[in-house]
Amino acid sequence: MKIIAVIPARYEASRFPGKLMQILGEKTVITTTYQNVVETGLFDEVFVATDSEIIFEEINNNGGKAVMTGQHETGSDRIAEAVQNIDCDIVINVQGDEPFLKLEPLKQLIEVFKQDDNQEISLASLKIQLTEKEEIENPNNVKVITDNNGFALYFSRSVIPFHREISYDISYFKHIGVYAFRKHALLQFSKLEMKPLEISEKIECIRYLEYGMKIKLIETNFIGVGIDTPEDLEKARKLI
């Protein structure tokens, strides 16, 4: 299989505009993410897909590869445009605001497709258990519930499942925004109309579920810092 990584990057993030160009250590957030993905050595090709001249120039000026795309509602739509003429089998979507992603969870995502002999999985992604009440209730943390085989049932910014039966021990999981797509499923996704659930939650992978596609979730203990707010940036600066 030919496996590539694409980092979708837009400058005008709704909650924290310009976050990818903030300085983290000695480099910007987007350059840190790009270089860390390249250094895993897992991919035949790595590039940033952006509609921002600022981000495009930042990556190219630091020896990386970037492509310009049109404006899109979701990162998956942006990646679909970027890869439509590229020969590949699996596309890994690494969020530009996840600068601390490690090699092991990326290997786990790739392994999902190597073991999927019937090619029934459209998308694979990561989840990590949440234990703190504040983190569970934080709408910036997308929660996910799965069936017994690890396939996604639903994603939400609300607390799911609702803990009605207090005597029963419930586990909560955060969805980590790193995706691995079959290329043909990604291109199909980009042609599908957004439905009310996706629009309401602002969670793009709900579109796959609404159209009956299978999403495999892999549990990981990877603890990164997704930079959604200025407070997250400060946490990342302390970590680095």
From TrEMBL:
Belongs to the KdsB family. It holds the Pfam family CTP_transf_3. Keywords: Cytoplasm, Lipopolysaccharide biosynthesis, Nucleotidyltransferase, Transferase. Activates KDO (a required 8-carbon sugar) for incorporation into bacterial lipopolysaccharide in Gram-negative bacteria. It comes from Chryseobacterium edaphi. The keyword Transferase applies. The gene is kdsB. InterPro entries: Cytidylyl_trans, KdsB, Nucleotide-diphossugar_trans. Pathway: Nucleotide-sugar biosynthesis; CMP-3-deoxy-D-manno-octulosonate biosynthesis; CMP-3-deoxy-D-manno-octulosonate from 3-deoxy-D-manno-octulosonate and CTP: step 1/1. This is 3-deoxy-manno-octulosonate cytidylyltransferase. Its EC number is 2.7.7.38.
